[in-house]
Request: fold
Amino acid sequence: MKPAITKKRAIRRSPGERALAVAVYLILGLFSLSTLYPFVNIIAKAFSGYTPNVTGAVVLWPVEFQTGTFMRVLTNPQFFTSFWVSVRVTVLGTGLSLFFSSLAGYVLSRERLKGRSFLTACFVFTMMFSGGMIPNYILVRSLHMLDTLWSLFLPNVINVYNMLIIKTAFEGTPPALEESAKVDGASNLRIFLSIMFPMIAPSVAAVSLFLAVGYWNEYWSAILYITKNGLKPIQLYLLDVVNYASDPLSGTESTFAFQDAPEGIKAATIIVATLPILALYPFVQKYFVKGVMIGSVKE
Amino acid sequence: MKAPNPNRTWLAIRRDWDLYLMLLVPMCLLALFKYVPMGGLVMAFQDYDIFGGFFESPMVGLKNFQELFSAREFLSVLWNTLCISWYKILFFFPVPILVALMLNEITCSWYKRTVQTIVYMPHFLSWVVVAGLAFDMLSSTGAVNRMLGLVGCKPVNFLMDASKFQPIVVLSAIWKEAGYSAIVYLAAISAIDPALYEAAVMDGAGKLKQMLYITLPGIVPTIVMMLLLRVGTVMDGNVEQIMAMYNPTVYETGDVIGTYIYRMGLGNMRYSFAAAAGLFNSVVSFTLVFFSNLASRKLVHRSLW
Reply:
């Protein structure tokens, strides 16, 4: 984010001010380093040998460099299955959620809509009150969705928060646009699809990135609704690996041979499970300030 | 004002019939996945039988709630939830404000951008990844114990010690979210009138004085609003974080309402009992959110809705 205010530099800085400036730079630097260090450490561990990993000798760079652990994590069949589950959930969930949120956001942004505030309130109310875990479970169970891919995204497909971001974006579009299309005889659906939707492309991009990150990182639905290994998303698989690494005797994760240190397996799995997010991050970063501000606060 | 003409209303609806049609599917999904479970809360007053369903299960009145409030476990779970939330308000809440104030003081733009890129990033990681990284740092051979070793302390078993679980939860939340949460305050700072700073410089105010007497008062409404919103979520307990981080040795301090409902309901199949706990949680949360939002609107004229 660029600073919106350009402050005049003080002509002279007192020693106290200089000390303050140095402290600020130092503290933020340390905060950044402590944010980065776990990543550096985990990358080093993923490529280190068995003994250094178990004894904790790995700090900043790999000791006894090897790529075997990483390759075995990548070729682990359960990893591949889980990765594919998460890809499908992310694509389907993001697509459907975006579509329905945009539809609802568009309709609710039209001021001429009768019952607009009541309908909006119906959506907003669900942000504050929910049936909770057990009734949700019973519902998914009675819909015969337990242990299906659907259970991982359909119950959350209406995301009110993102719907409000889109609604706000539609409210900011010029009304003349819709009126002129109306005069030309276009239907509401047509106006929505070919005129209004492209108008809010930046907000759509932001929302879809947020949705994608959310679906990729989600594991709570899987904990509730999934028991089959074939449908475990990547985060749930990673949780198994993390628990296995902190307690190898628990035996939750037996698909790895003993040639790899549990720490190494955990490190490598964390890296591959995070890589898609980190690949998206530069694009997300451009939009997230907007996402945080719009739709969250009303003056 | 004239009363609305019913004919005209009908005409408006007919003219825009396809607009209403577009809302149909989202409304149906909302009704099915959000409102049907609310109706399902009736099971909290039943002795729910998973094979019989809502219509065949006997009503038992408040029996589940009586059991719930007399269960020592539930009271301890409630206490843990409130403790963790309270520590988050006490220790987490000020950090993003400090980060924003400090970022605002940085004049070197590449340094500022680099710091922002780095400290915002953990927000986009899942709690499972954060748990994995935290376990890595806190294990017997991890970075924290190595540092303790340097100053001559004995290694500490952080992950199996119930008394250390809550601090770990708060610290890992700070690590993950403090940077990202600063964005709201940074935006508030950027909305402050630059003329105020110019006037202050004229009057000879230094950087610290500017920060204390212009920037900080300028973002007080945002701070108040964020604080009230956080108070509204004290019952949440962030179940995704706890679930990824806890283990049976730390249930004593780490079990929160969400994880308790999960274990009672889906682990022990006590559906009605767990639903009663969930209903209690939802009602208290709703009340808190409602009143904190109301307070926010009254105090600083800003609110979520």
